[in-house]
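From the methods appendix. Each design record in this collection lists the tokenized structure first, followed by the designed amino acid sequence. Records were kept in a plain field format so they could be parsed without special tools. The example shown here is representative of the layout used throughout.

RECORD:
FOLD TOKENS (321 positions):
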């Protein structure tokens, strides 16, 4: 058990007072012992009387005188003895009184020390009671603080779990929405892809039909002209007609256009290059539209014209309005 500084100081003061009282008593006893160390009780010792027998005749008067002197001395010795006895009695009475006073003082000191010790004990018990009450109060406060902290911890844990559960629900909802959006996007992409493929098939089919129609018309026109020209002329006329059908006239084109067009092809009729050569009276937009029309044709007639095939063919593109 830990003692407070006040309690320690009180104990030190009590021990110091007790030690001082013991030292005073021991000193007083030592003085008494030393003072009576060589003291002997007074004994009455009879004064020896010397008797001298003399002749009572002529010396009777001096002998009376001597007897008187001896009696006086004996009386003085007796008086001295009595004075010594009285002094010794008074000294013994004083010593007895001092012993009684010392005993009373010691008793009072012991009583005061007892009361002081009782007071110190009472203070100690009071201090111990206050310490226990303080310890109990602190224990209750600590317990209440611990319970509050535990309750706060549980509340924070519940809130954390609720936030985590809410977050998990949000994440699940976001994941579901993303997956749903992904499925919708994939479905939309699939549909768009199917639509694009269908459009591409339709375009290719339409282009093939248009190509077949252009070729048929060109062949019909070429067949009509073939009767008036050689096979090469028919071939060139077919190319010219195909280009004319593929041509998209720009807004700046005016009637009377005549431009020489050079076409580069490979066996099989695939066009790999087209350019405008002199003479040509068209503007730049018209020139570009003519070369673009040639490239849109893509493939020139080849079968049936193998004998007149040339890698480079130049023909005149004419627009009369």
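DESIGN:
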């Amino acid at each position: 058990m830990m003692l407070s500084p006040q309690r320690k100081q009180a104990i030190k003061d009590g021990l110091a007072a007790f030690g001082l009282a013991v030292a005073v008593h021991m000193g007083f006893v030592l003085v008494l012992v030393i003072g009576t160390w060589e003291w002997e009780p007074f004994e009455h010792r009879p004064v020896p009387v010397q008797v001298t027998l003399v002749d009572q005749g002529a010396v009777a008067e001096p002998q009376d005188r001597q007897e008187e002197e001896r009696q006086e001395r004996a009386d003085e010795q007796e008086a001295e003895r009595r004075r010594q006895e009285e002094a010794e009695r008074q000294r013994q009475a004083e010593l007895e009184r001092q012993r009684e006073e010392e005993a009373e003082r010691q008793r009072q000191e012991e009583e005061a020390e007892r009361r002081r010790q009782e007071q110190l004990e009472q203070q100690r018990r009071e201090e111990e009671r206050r310490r226990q009450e303080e310890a109990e109060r602190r224990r209750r406060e600590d317990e209440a603080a611990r319970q509050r902290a535990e309750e706060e911890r549980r509340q924070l844990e519940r809130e954390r779990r609720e936030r985590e559960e809410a977050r998990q629900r949000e994440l699940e909802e976001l994941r579901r929405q993303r997956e749903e959006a992904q499925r919708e996007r994939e479905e939309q992409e699939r549909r768009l892809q199917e639509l694009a493929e269908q459009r591409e098939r339709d375009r290719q089919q339409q282009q093939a039909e248009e190509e077949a129609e252009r070729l048929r018309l060109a062949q019909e026109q070429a067949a009509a002209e073939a009767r008036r020209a050689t096979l090469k002329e028919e071939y060139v006329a077919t190319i010219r007609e195909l280009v004319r059908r593929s041509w998209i006239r720009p807004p700046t084109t005016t009637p009377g256009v005549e431009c020489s067009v050079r076409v580069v092809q490979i066996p099989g009729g695939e066009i790999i290059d087209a350019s405008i050569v002199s003479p040509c009276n068209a503007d730049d937009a018209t020139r570009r539209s003519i070369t673009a029309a040639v490239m849109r044709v893509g493939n020139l007639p080849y079968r049936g014209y193998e004998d007149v095939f040339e890698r480079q063919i130049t023909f005149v593109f004419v627009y009369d309005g």
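APPENDIX NOTE: Confidence is low (pLDDT under 50) at residues 49-54.
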